[in-house]
Amino acid sequence: ILNVEQSPQSLHVQEGDSTNFTCSFPSSNFYALHWYRWETAKSPEALFVMTLNGDEKKKGRISATLNTKEGYSYLYIKGSQPEDSATYLCAFWGRDDKIIFGKGTRLHILP
Amino acid sequence: EAGVAQSPRYKIIEKRQSVAFWCNPISGHATLYWYQQILGQGPKLLIQFQNNGVVDDSQLPKDRFSAERLKGVDSTLKIQPAKLEDSAVYLCASSLDEGTDGYEQYFGPGTRLTVT
Predict the structure, then answer these.
(1) With contacts defined as CB-CB under 8 Å, which chain A residues touch B41?
(2) Which of A55, A108, B69, B93 could bridge across to A50 with cysteines, CB 3.0–4.6 Å?
(3) CA of A81: how far to CAs of A65, A111, B12, B113, in Å?
(4) Chain A residues within 8 A of B45 when measuring between CB atoms
């Protein structure tokens, strides 16, 4: 049974601090790894689509890395702001078109 | 560019009733996905269409759920009859065919279904 694990489940971070969280996924049959941000009452928004081992992507204060050999990806947020409060989801895409989401990391930024 | 549209946004029904959700993807997006997200869980893929053909429906409970994508554009997801455990947010997403970035998905706002 394929499983995608995200940790931690929930995180409280002081405004201005940096933080990171993890997505673990099966290292076999890998095609792509997606990161999404899902704010309350809004649609999930794509942050990154990562396909190559060693990929590093950046969008403003948010960046992500990918290790397909060991099956993990990190998402980093530098200098957290209140608008970063959201649930961050990762999704594993297999070569057989299987798509599996993790349960998400709920991030709360404290003023 | 208009985003993915879904309706209704909220629906409350009694168990054993029927319900239907509608999704209009971004224009030109060949692939359409329906997800079920139960509280505390990650979204679960129910069905994936490419144009009007089904790519994957292995997790669709076919005894009660059905979906169609007419003319490869709009899609409807139906539940008949509904059970209490169907209470969830139903998300629709669409994507272009595979590109260098591999199927970036655009999500609609979701339909929150409550079955009582």
Answers:
(1) 103
(2) A55
(3) 21, 8, 36, 32
(4) 98-100
Looking at the DSSP assignment, which residues form a beta bridge with residue B53? B50
Residue ranges of alpha helices (H) inside chain A are none
Rounded Cα distance, A43 and B111, in Å: 11
Which three-class secondary structure state does DSSP give residue B97?
coil
Across the interface, whether the CB atoms of A49 and B102 are under 8 A apart is answered: yes
Q: What is the pLDDT of residues A37-78, one digit of tens each?
A: 999 889 999 999 999 999 999 999 999 999 999 999 999 999
Amino acid, res. B3: G
Residues 6+ apart with CB under 8 A from A27: A68, A69, A70, A71
Tell me how far apart the alpha carbons of residues A66 and B25 are, in angstroms, rounded to a whole number: 29
Distance, CA of B113 to CA of A27 (rounded, Å): 35
Closest chain B residue to A10, measured at CA: B40
- Please name every residue paired with A45 in a beta bridge, in sequence order, or none if there are none: A37
Interface test with B, best of A89, A101, A105, A106 (most B CBs within 10 A): A101
Provide the pairing of β-strand B88-95 with B111-115. antiparallel
Band (B1; pLDDT cuts 50, 70, 90): low
pLDDT for position A1: 57
